[in-house]
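Lecture notes, continued. The same structure-token format from the folding unit now serves as the input rather than the output. Read the line below as a description of shape only.
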């Protein structure tokens, strides 16, 4: 079975939408002219090129395409004729879909040719407010902003920023994440004052997602450990996994005390689904994810969801458009309506040393004297 591949071109011409293989043009030219030389002249190509392409296609497809008999015109083999027939059938049936596909591609590519439009590629930890921001940006008039959001773990998001795969990253930490925490050990090597800039976004509540009615009466991680509740965890590299481990350390609990600590799900929504399906009793997540699955929610901690970019990117038009959008009352009101969220210095460029107090330069200078 030979597989089909599709390609498209960018052009100023308003030519009709076509999905067509160059081989079909070669076969049609040979069929109409009765010779390779005639086909070459009709296509404006050299005899050598047309001959070479026909031989190459015969090798690729494993079938003869042209019949040459001494003293007679060249003609298509039965296989070549069937290819032409298949092309006509496909074009007749798929013309409306092809035109619709072309129109959709043109609408998408119009953004690239619109000087007032901006595209910001963002890798971010799973978050309802980020999803809402993407939709909110699309609804704005004037200078449209398109957020190309790819959800991944907090650690992977910052790594993507440092590796140049995005211009903005989203990650989250406990609001009181201080010195000698896993958050510090995780994020400090990835972020550098002077190189990165933290941008305010939102504050949100993390807590236990539990079955309706909270049948095990869980109100803390200590309760989870004491009752042997089945826990759905998040994978290494996710911000929620870092938050969980810091909360366990604060409660003086070891990961081994949590039943199911090693069993992971890829997102808040997946954890909630596991609980709703009775595959787990609880898991750490956000209220919105819990209530979408009909679960109850027990608040445990406040955290800050941060945006971060390189300092050198702050002046880029897309980043400036994003900062302005984040500062609008309309956006901040929308965040406030998401359960468990409040805007927090949204759109402001913040001091990394104040938001993430892991760099104590003053103390370092004193110690050097």
């Amino acid at each position: 079975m030979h597989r089909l591949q599709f390609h498209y071109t960018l052009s100023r011409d308003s030519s009709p939408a076509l999905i067509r293989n160059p081989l079909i043009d070669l076969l049609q030219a040979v069929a109409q002219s009765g010779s390779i030389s005639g086909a070459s002249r009709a296509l404006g190509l050299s005899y050598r090129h047309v001959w070479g392409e026909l031989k190459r296609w015969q090798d690729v497809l494993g079938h003869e395409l042209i019949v040459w008999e001494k003293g007679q015109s060249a003609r298509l083999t039965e296989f070549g004729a069937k290819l032409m027939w298949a092309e006509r059938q496909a074009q007749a049936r798929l013309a409306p879909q092809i035109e619709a596909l072309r129109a959709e591609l043109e609408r998408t590519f119009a953004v690239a040719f619109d000087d007032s439009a901006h595209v910001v590629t963002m890798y971010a930890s799973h978050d309802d407010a980020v999803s809402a921001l993407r939709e909110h940006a699309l609804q704005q008039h004037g200078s449209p902003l398109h957020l190309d959001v790819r959800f991944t773990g907090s650690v992977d998001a910052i790594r993507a920023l440092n590796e140049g795969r995005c211009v903005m990253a989203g990650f989250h930490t406990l609001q009181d994440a201080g010195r000698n925490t896993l958050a510090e050990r995780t994020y400090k090597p990835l972020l550098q004052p002077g190189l990165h800039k933290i941008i305010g976004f939102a504050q949100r509540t993390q807590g236990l997602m539990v079955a309706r009615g909270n049948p095990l009466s869980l109100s803390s991680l200590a309760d989870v450990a004491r009752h042997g509740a089945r826990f759905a965890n998040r994978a290494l590299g996710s911000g929620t996994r870092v938050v969980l481990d810091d909360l366990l350390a604060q409660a003086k609990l070891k990961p081994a005390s949590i039943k199911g600590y090693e069993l992971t799900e890829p997102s808040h929504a997946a954890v909630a689904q596991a609980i709703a399906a009775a595959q787990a009793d609880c898991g750490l997540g956000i209220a919105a994810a819990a209530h979408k699955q009909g679960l109850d929610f027990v608040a445990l901690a406040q955290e800050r969801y941060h945006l971060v970019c390189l300092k050198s990117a702050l002046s880029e038009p897309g980043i400036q458009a994003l900062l302005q959008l984040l500062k609008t009352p309309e956006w901040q009101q929308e965040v406030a309506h998401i359960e468990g969220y409040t805007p927090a210095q949204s759109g402001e460029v913040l001091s990394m040393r104040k938001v993430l107090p892991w760099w104590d330069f003053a103390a370092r200078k004193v110690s050097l004297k």
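Point for the exam: The chain has two domains: 22-110, 118-368.
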